[in-house]
Design a protein that fits this description.
By secondary structure, the chain is mainly α. α4 runs parallel beside α6. 23% of the residues are buried.
Length: 115
């Protein structure tokens, strides 16, 4: 991570969802857009964010077999959201992967969402 960017810059980018842009992150963090763009390009932010989006969409599209599974998935989703808020993107991805496996999605399908 570039020292000019605060910890959690990538998480801020991911949290913006469909409105995400380097300029929006720069404005949110109070840094220069060029700084964000340089780090974002070097660290492949767009591809990584798309992979997270695809995992989340896959989780959302699953048919849930029973109420217990639904509650477990909701809990995993809340934990993933909390990890993103704490700027722990890797933990959020792991929680989403766990939710996918709980619903019977294969490792191959999960890997296919990784971009």
């Amino acid at each position: 991570m570039n020292s000019k960017l605060p910890v959690g810059a990538f998480s801020a980018y991911v949290e913006l969802g469909p409105r995400r842009s380097y300029a929006a992150v720069a404005a949110r963090l109070g840094v220069c857009r060029r700084t964000v763009a340089g780090v974002g390009a070097r660290e492949r932010w767009p591809a990584r964010a798309r992979a997270i989006d695809r995992r989340a969409e896959l989780v959302a599209s699953l048919s849930i077999p029973d109420a217990a599974a639904a509650l477990e998935l909701l809990e995993l989703a809340e934990q993933a959201r909390a990890r993103l808020a704490e700027h722990d993107v890797e933990a959020a991805e792991q929680l989403l992967d766990r939710a996918l496996r709980r619903c019977g999605v294969s490792e191959r399908e999960i890997a296919g969402s990784s971009g």
